[in-house]
Amino acid sequence: MSASWRDRPRRLAGRLAFGLIALAIAAYSLFPFYWTIVSSLKVGSGLYRVEFLPRSATIANYTAVFAEQPFARNILNSVAVAGGAVAMAMALAVPASYALGRIEFRGRRTLLIGVLGVSMFPQVAILSGLFELVRWLGLYDRLGGLIVTYLVFTLPFTVWILTTYMRELPRELEEAALLDGATPFDLLVRVLLPLLAPAAAATGLLAFIVAWNEFLFALTFTLSNETRTVPVAIALISGASQFELPWGRIMAASVIVTLPLIALTLVFQRRIVSGLTAGAGPG
């Protein structure tokens, strides 16, 4: 018997073990979301029965979420706030990453470490200062106030990731463009930005997910139902009485706001992986 035939059972056992481990990890990761969907299709006492498939599925929780509060408006608020914060962060992070990643100047490393250090502060530690800033700007209970405050965590994240990626771009392209008479603006927009597109897409998507799920700032800087985002709207869903926990509607709302993020992640998963790993080399 040849060596290849003797090794065949070992290879098959290895593949089987790998498949079982992958299946276990997938089941562990997806089961909470599956259980959320199942619970969202139950009402009344059915919520407290352990059923992997509901006996009498209903969409009453989904209709109640939109009927009892302006949940569609809350979703639009989250889209506007998360999209606006990411757009502003990317507009500032691209030129900042070029300066930090391509230009030699004194204190560059200290500045980059400072940018990273800002993102390490817990939100509650800067909450009072941001509240005074938002009130002074007249942006309390306005979507603009959330967009400004969300830059506290989206901007350091985007600057750090894009700077790491920017360092890996070949210097020869920059030198050739400068020899051809390109200005720094032309170099950034026409030469480096197209190469930065995969990392920018991945970074922007991850920053959007973080901003979409943010709760503390949204709870503090908004007051009315018309300006609340979806995390706050879900947290404030109440039952018919103070003793009733509306788990069905909470689960339904959670499914509604999670599905778009899952769809975006599945569509752009290759860009996320390639964009984040492209700048992972030593710089």
Shape: flat
**Rg to the nearest angstrom?**
24 Å
| Continuous helix count | 12
Q: How many domain units?
A: 2
CATH class categorisation of the largest domain: Mainly Alpha
Which architecture of the largest domain per CATH?
Orthogonal Bundle
Describe the structure.
This protein is mainly alpha-helical and 283 residues long. It folds into two domains: 3-40; 60-278, MetI-like fold. Helices cover 73% and strands 0% of the residues. It is built from twelve helices and no strands. It starts with a helix and ends in a 5-residue tail after the last helix. Mean pLDDT is 83; it is low at 279-283.
Question: Which tags fit this structure?
Answer:
MetI-like fold, mainly alpha, 283 residues
List the helices and strands and how they pair.
Elements: H1 3-40, H2 60-68, H3 71-102, H4 108-119, H5 127-136, H6 143-166, H7 171-179, H8 184-213, H9 216-220, H10 230-235, H11 247-267, H12 269-278
Helix pairs in contact: 1-11, 2-11, 3-6, 3-8, 4-6, 6-8, 7-8, 8-12
Short description:
This protein has 283 residues and is an all-alpha fold.
